[in-house]
Fold Dihydroxy-acid dehydratase.
Amino acid sequence: MSKTNKRRSSNWYGKMDKDGFIHRSWMKSQGLPDHVFDGRPIIGICNTWSELTPCNAGLRKLAEGVKRGVWEAGGVPLEFPVMSLGETQMKPTAMLFRNLLSMDVEESIRAYGIDGVVLLGGCDKTTPGQLMGAASVDLPTIVVSSGPMLNGKYKGQDIGSGTDVWRFSEEVRAGDMTLKEFMAAETGMSRSSGVCMTMGTASTMASLVEGMGLSLPTNATLPAVDARRMTLAHLSGKRIVEMVEEELNLSKVLTKESFQNAITLNSAIGGSTNSVIHLLALAGRAEIELNLADFEKAEDIPLLVNLMPSGKYLMEDFCYAGGIPAVMDQIRSHIKPANTILNKDITHYFDEAEILNKDVIKTFNAPLKASAGLKVLRGNLAPDGAIIKPAAATEDLLKHEGLAYVFEDIEDMKANIDRPDLPVTKNTILVLKGCGPKGYPGMPEVGNMPIPKVLVEQGVRDMIRISDARMSGTAFGTIVLHVAPEANVGGPISIVETGDRIQINVSQGLLELLVPESEIEKRLKSRKQPKENYTRGYAKLYIDNVMQADKGADLDFLVGKDTRLPSRESH
Ligand code: FES
């Protein structure tokens, strides 16, 4: 059997019978000539372009760049759409649909006659959703990201996606900013296609993808509208054809070491807390043992990147300062040998890197913050773990004891947070329930609940907030997230009452409800299960099968992979 006959796509286009006729003939309706079905690699371009996902609005053009590269290398590019998840547009939360996108990607790749796939994504959930789906099929796979938006501008200053929205909205509530100024900032913030240009979840995931060797170098930081991104798309198209020839499947790049490198890099860039949940879910698909303990025992890596929300610059500045290769060069002694889509070790990505602006990218010996990794907290309030991002928190609050003020659900919080008589002080610990994977459903980014208005007026800008929710990667504050098990499944967070004392000690990894065990048990026994709002469709499937945050909030039946060819023809 010749090598080309071993290609996956030959099971569709290589047959000289009725089935082959049908597969080829209908494709020829697009003007494809006979010779493109001679056994050359068929490359799927999996596109999350959508006008409802403005962050991914540039992907149509990038797909053209990929196609140029595929044709040049002797492959056949075929673009296909998958569900797109617009983080700022979808209700109740785009995270509810991450697993649905992954199913769309997985089944599309499996059902069609393609040999390799290019994933075009960018907005927060599109990158992990696409990779999760692709990992469950395991073809040669390469990522091309949307790239970040240009820096936001307001009154001559750079402003950052998300981060400055949270800041401005607090200033409006405090009476320090007018509504007119607020609207002007809204217009100046998002000036081009591309993803949030702070180190939010989208740029975090693109950075980790680059650091894991799943894309070409510089993929994370080149601005969406930079011509060099089109060049990168072209080169990625060329490379995926070579990857098919080399039989370099995704599983040969996605290894335990590449996940460990992602955890290390996430600390150095001050990456989003959401990366934890996405990496856990992706590892589950790739059948790699990864759990919260891997984040807990990760080495203490300093924060090197001076980007919002932990610092002051934006992705455009990061790109011009040297980007991910320059950061990886600084932490090279902590990076493990790992293969990449270039079929070369990851060191190849940063061998010639240099820092071009030392205020944006700090050196390992003179970092922005000495310790920056995400911390895992455990205790009787979070037996299966919770997450905090110390780099975005207030130092003094990282060891604290205070009385809880509890919101039973998001509606309770929204209705009461601005009450002038809310009995809270800057030492109060706000607790929000009902925002976990099953409870909301979809585990939204509401963990960074606003500071109560009475405290904003006193000048308070941060306090401890605890929830079973996530938070936007662009947000900041002393915020404990992903408390597991969540309230909706009877986790201890469900029985916290206003006035209970809570202890947090980040350096010791502790999160304790200082209520006697007998009282906790009594409350858990008398707890009432909240009524379910969703009784049909995908949301019902999700609620019935979603796992908790410490397992990546994937659907339990999607864990693992199935690399077999579809066994039956369609006709
Ligand atoms: Fe799409 Fe931030 S909203 S990347």
In short: Residues 55, 87-88, 123-124, 161, 195-196, 200, 202 surround FE2/S2 (inorganic) cluster (CB under 6 Å). The first strand starts at residue 42 and ends at 47.
